[in-house]
Amino acid sequence: MINLYGLDRNQLQALFVEQGLQEFRGRQLMKWVYHQGKTDFATMTDLPKTMRDWLVENACFELPEVKNFLKSKDGTLKWVLDLDDGNLIETVLIPEKNRNTLCVSSQVGCMLDCSFCSTGKQGFNGNLSAAMIVGQLVIANQVLAAEGRAVTNVVLMGMGEPLLNFDAAISATNVMKDDLAFNLSKRRVTISTAGVVPAINELAKVTDVSLAVSLHAPNDELRNVLVPINRKYPIAQLKEACQRYVEHLGEARKLVIEYTLIKGVNDQREHALALAELLKGVRCKVNLIPFNPFPGTEYQRPKKADILDFQSIMMRAGYATMLRTTRGEDIDAACGQLVGKVLDRTKRQERYKAKLDANTIAVGAG
Ligand code: SAH
User: Fold this and answer.
1) Which sequence positions are flagged as catalytic?
2) Best mutation site among 163, 191, 230, 289 for ligand 1, i.e. most ligand atoms within 8 A of its Cβ?
3) CA 299 to ligand 1: nearest atom
4) For residue 220, which of 210, 232, 212, 208 has the smallest C-alpha distance?
5) 2-60 maps to which CATH number?
6) pTM above 0.70, yes or no
7) pLDDT tens-digit readout, 254-305
8) What is the architecture, at CATH level 2, of domain 65-354?
9) From the alpha carbon of 194, which atom of ligand 1 is closest?
């Protein structure tokens, strides 16, 4: 069975052509699904009967199953989704005055093991299909529709590294942007990466979505510790790849730099000054994320004054610098708190738990 939620316009058209039909049949199908909300092939009366029969036999529109749905005091919503194979992933909606941002997962767990992220501690099981990435948006919109709302922005900032699930991330974001589907502006669909440099280089060939980079440190020595993939692709390479990508996006677009502030680790004035220096000449804006604690971590969130100090240094250096307020903490929906349930294939979870048991990691207050 082909789950059609995972096919973008070109792929759907190709599917119809393979079946001996014309390309426009693919577009007709998209309108039924995304504009009329109809996924029952029998109702798609303008498709040839033989094609409808073929679709019934060979294709489906399947969504992940909602295992749990949580609502935070601050309005943040979290879905725990069952992928039908024992794995659970998480999706978070952050409502704001003028927008509803959906944070979707791209992998079951994560391979990268950034030292301050709880998703990484869960280990890794595999990639999400494009359909399961799009499915998260379908489910969120179904809930919002009841209140006359809809998702306005999508960020691939949930569980996983989207650029290590490249093809699925591209197909899914294509569907999100397509005016025959969700019709989100390219500016409002963001892929976030810890810095998979070769994939960033590929990105410009296939898409024009916004790009966010999880930088978190102004030098290689520190970044090697926080974001281990930096040992493979150091900052200079990352910077060059990102600059090339924003050039491709054009004048009016900016790279998003994500920087999680961790007390005493990367939150000092010297770090801010070094960051400002590093980003010179990069068309970017900066998002500061105060560290969100999780069980077993030694890291702590900086004091408010230090966070504001960091922000003002960046602002004075000329960077638009946003402080990302922590949302949904009471339902473990904040950045770095998404864990789902990963049937870990990397044994990392085991090692981490063993360390916890052996008390070699202080269990934080969070
Ligand atoms: N792998 C991709 C997508 C995940 S995005 C990437 O690294 O960009 C999740 C964002 O939350 C990243 O910027 C990540 O570094 C940040 N983050 C992870 N753990 C966090 C924590 N405990 N507190 C605050 N931010 C965190």
Assistant:
1) 90, 335
2) 289
3) 22
4) 232
5) 1.10.150.530
6) yes
7) 999 999 999 999 999 999 999 999 999 999 999 999 999 988 899 999 999 9
8) Alpha-Beta Barrel (3.20)
9) 7
